Predict the 3D structure of the following.
Amino acid sequence: MRIWDIYKFLASLALIAMLARRESLKVLGIETSCDETGIAVYDSDRGLIGEGLYSQVEIHEKFGGVIPELASRDHIRKTLPLINQVLGESGLSKTDLDGIAYTAGPGLVGALLVGASVGRSMAMGLEIPAIGVHHMEGHLLAPMLESDPPDFPFVALLVSGGHTQLVKVDGIGKYEILGESLDDAAGEAFDKVGKMLGLPYPGGPNVARLATRGVGEVFKFPRPMVNRPGLDFSFSGLKTSVRNTIAEHSIDGNLDTQVAANIAKGFEDAVVATLSIKCKRALEYTGLSTLIIAGGVSANVQLREVLDATVAKIQGSLFYAQPKYCTDNGAMIAYAGCQRLMAGEKNDLSIEVRPRWSLESLAAI
Ligand code: KG4
Ligand code: ZN
């Protein structure tokens, strides 16, 4: 009996020692799908332990939009120095890393190739696994970086510069697209309207800023497709309506600043109302009560406020990431990559990027 007790005691000590030895997984995230070089390190035990972002806005501003070739060239200049900076600031050396996650698509192919080549090559040199991450999965999981993350299942509204999608999410990689934009993405519509109003690139945050000085209801733009059944979106008609209104109210090609602010407000109201109606419909359709919003447009204050109210009416809950994790960043890629690496996924040595890539084709983990 005594020998058995000693044996049990020793066995539990061995288990404690084994757990104590269990190393957390430190994953470097590299985001280069468009015009931001985003780098971060996510630790599976401690959360985010380092991050850095370099925005190319100044480079593309004078052209009024992203020039893909200039984007790739600048990612080449910035990626390695930013990795070095982030590792240095977090007190890590390259050999502390256990895996590398890079955005493999969707996005600009040349820009994606920079992050993929750097990430894959570093992983090969360090003899650690590398994983190509779906950019929109990164966005979708960004609210998980917050201290109060949502539980699965939920409905996700993904609103970025390239995508507007409503997705039923049952777990990581368990995605069902419920609806999407048939033409422009919500962010793209914001950017185009910004350009029409003569605002600097990117239009989204600038239109939102101008709208705060606008008077509501002066211009009531159409809420596209809300009277049709289904969960798809279309923003091109709204964009045309804004263009016509600007033309009607311009004198010698100039628009009064208050009129411009009223148009920005009317446009933002129309986009937010449309997104809100479709989100409510998606929650009803799925029978779920948790909504998350992600992607650049989810940083929009009015969208957050209106959706908060919409979800509160049905006793549901709304989750979103802090603004710096709504727009492109390395943290969401490090987080998503870490989850997939922990599940045993990794890519082989060939470097593959996908400018177009369906969320629904991802493997469940
Ligand atoms: O997710 P993101 O950084 O990049 C893509 O994956 O596309 O999203 C960028 C988009 C741009 O269209 C930008 O104008 C828009 O998000 N955006 C906003 C706001 N902040 C960024 N749109 C409306 N209101 C904002 N506050
Ligand atoms: Zn994005």
Observations:
- The domain at 152-320 is CATH 3.30.420.40 (Nucleotidyltransferase; domain 5).
- The chain is about 45% helix and 20% strand.
